[in-house]
Amino acid sequence: MEYFDIVDEQGNPTGQTVERKQAHRNNILHRTAHVWIVRRRGNSIQILLQKRCMEKDSFPGCYDISSAGHIPAGVDYIPSALRELREELGLTIDPAQLIDCGLHRHHADEVFHGERFLDNQISKVFLLWLDVDEADITVQKEEIDSVKWFDYAECKQDVINGTIPNCIDVAELEMLEPHFVE
């Protein structure tokens, strides 16, 4: 079983833990680490998205954050972000490469595979400048179908318009933008 720290509104652990399934059944606040991978191409910014596999317990078949994951009990944001990059994408980086974009509060109330899914999370949002070819990424097949680079501006518009299947929060995308300036 996977356990999470129950956290307060600032993302601080309360000293209590909860099993993953119970957190999502009972709307219990917990933490995640999100890493958005970006690169420059000419005058534009590109963003790497993963396409979630159809067997995922939430948002199957949707485009999502480059790398993201729940933070196990007793673990902090950066070690969790580094672990998810290794597990999901086969990428090992220096922690100093992660740019802290802040905390983002997210709540979802959805139904997947016939079960209600309540996601009540605080996410530490990181930006990672990394120019890597899709072919050089080793995806975790149990979680991810594929990865794809998108033009950032077009991707943001697609998310707003719902023209690609996604589970991306526009407000979180916008947290990256101040870090695009050189």
Automatic annotation (TrEMBL):
Gene3D superfamilies the UniProt entry points to: Nucleoside Triphosphate Pyrophosphohydrolase
Domain Nudix hydrolase: 28-172
CDD domains xref list: NUDIX_Hydrolase
GO BP terms, alphabetized: isopentenyl diphosphate biosynthetic process
GO MF, any single term: isopentenyl-diphosphate delta-isomerase activity
Pfam families per UniProt: NUDIX
Transmembrane segments: none
PROSITE patterns the record matches: NUDIX
InterPro entries, A to Z: NUDIX_hydrolase-like_dom_sf, NUDIX_hydrolase_dom
A cellular-component GO term for this protein: cytoplasm
Protein name stated in the entry: NUDIX domain-containing protein
